[in-house]
Amino acid sequence: MRHIPTVDDLAADPVTHHYDDMIAPSGLTNLLGTVRVDHDLTALTAVTFPPVSQGLTRTAASFVDGRLVESYGAPITHEWRPDRVRRSVSLPGLDLATVTVCAPGEAGVAIDVAATNTGDAARTVAVTLSLAAGAARSAEAWLDAVAPEERNRAAAGPDRLVFRNGAGTAWSVQGVDTDAEVRLSGIAPSAGEHEVGIGGIERGGEITVSLDVAPGATARFGYVHAVGATEAEAAQAFERIAADVPGAVAGAEAFWDHQLEAAFTPGNTEFSGHLPVLETASEPLRRLYWWGVLGTIWFRRDFPGNVLGRSYDTLMPNYWATTTFIWDYSLSSLTHALLDPAVMRRQVEHWIASDIHTHFGTSSLTGGPVGRWYSVNDYAMTRLVHDYLRFTGDTALLDASPGGRTVTEHLRDWARAWQDLRGGSPLADYGEIDNLLECVSSYTHEVASLNAANVWNLRTVAEILTARGDADGAAALDAEADALVKEVADLYVSGSGHFAARQPDGTRVPVRHVYDFSVVGTTIAGDLDEATRREMTAFFERELRTDVWLRSLSPWDPDASFSPRPDHQWNGAYPAWPADAARSLVALGEPQAALDWVPGLARSANQGPPGQAHFTEEAMPAVNGGARKAPPQLPYIIDWACSSAGAYVALVIESFFGVDPKVGSADLGTAGACVAGLDPDAVLRGLRVGDRLVDVHADGSVVDAG
């Protein structure tokens, strides 16, 4: 039994679909850039390698014998792995298969195309790729969800089309690795701008490869799409990849196997830390853990010009490229602290030096702010610093002064920031839906989740001050927390298992949302009486949990009709919500309920890394037993992968194995371990806590690693 995964272990289930079925197009990355792999046999969208972007421009749609492949009505099968996507289709007398990769170390994508003659006679197969580009290079941060693109003009070469933007600052070179017929489109450039869906995509031209294939034989060619800030840069990348497309495919597999091995290896050369190896006989537990690890690594970005040197993006491959959201990063906080603590510290200090009350994230192109304020930011930043401190032991961070004030001072500010948000009540008012969950209209103003988080912030900073020897400062914060928690409890709707959101006029609006369940449970469970804890878990089991996923909002909530977005509504959930809900179950005293859910949740880890949202089973049929990823088109606007995947690592380490180190203490706090209820012989090997490397067993015992 392997304890460190390979790309084969993380392969998604094959998915077969017709034209534009409700299947989210998958993504690939080589940690320099990203690409979306479309439903078609060869089509690509959003070939994005910062600083060059192409928005959602689609290219390389395929025609066989002059007919668009999508129009044949034949189902196309997609098989995703971290290193590649294999697409295949059977047409009359012909099987076609392609393998798409992001070429390691290059700003480019390669597709190996193979055609097999299943007929009785030799034939010549004409494969045509319709090519387009929208290469752009913005001098500013990419401040919209979709990365910049602009109109390109194409020039023909012997085996390629060369695209450039108007200023000559962004280039796309697309072509093949064999003899081909290259044609410009012959369509006059349009007079004005147009939008996809209204005017379509302005194609630059076509490339046709003719393959002579004997009966039962297979012929191949390679397609390459490279980008650059100069023509020479893009052309040289094209030449390197096109020289050996099968080698690029093999290289992608080796590259990703190496990344996965490094992530679990102390002293590796890829990350500044590592994650513990999970040894378990429970395949579902192992699958969830690996899902969380992959879904965090997946967002590492090392492109030239990254102002932080390295960052971790939040979404891909459609939206918010080069943006790191504070909220999402904090949901994978423990994972970052173990896997790449040096990068985490640099990112956290960068945010501290900014004004976290004015934006939701940061651009890795400029270091500048992106977006509006999210109400979670004070909680998210406290959690980030706390996890970094307790797992690295690097308390020197507290004396650092990003932005001119020490981190300790910032922690005090975050712990008390809620006081400036009070209106006529003792609780903080967190504003309207754009600052909170965006698609739940009733979840506004005085919400239970973030007010409970304020209690946790106060106590967590008090713990840190205690470790620093500031007993008086810690006592003051603890006293404020004890007073505040009573006010939070007042939002509970007696007997219901859920909470109300208090409006500025004092009206209490009941809201049956998982975010209250998760945050209240993981922050102040010990302050709730037994009856409330019991009612909360009963509500969760009755109205939110499904077999393989959860409903963010109860379908019995009046606001369930407000929005179709599945990340926070009745029809699905954001990827961290199941993990955090399971952590809440453990904290509320129902660990077995969380453990019993693991096999179902693990079935949803069958479509690549966690998506920005998965549908519940009643909203959309499952894919081979797993909750279906929601697609990017309207009205869902959901991306294929999201960096909060690290929440599943935290679920395993912190909740199931009970690892809860305190700042300034050598005790790992594993008394709450419950994983024995799933696998009594499970072990976390090589967990780093401060200067120690330890093995943690299912019974909570801790042994120094040899």
Automatic annotation (TrEMBL):
Highest taxon listed in the record's lineage: Bacteria
InterPro entries: 6-hairpin_glycosidase_sf, 6hp_glycosidase-like_sf
Protein name as catalogued: Uncharacterized protein
Organism of origin: Glycomyces endophyticus
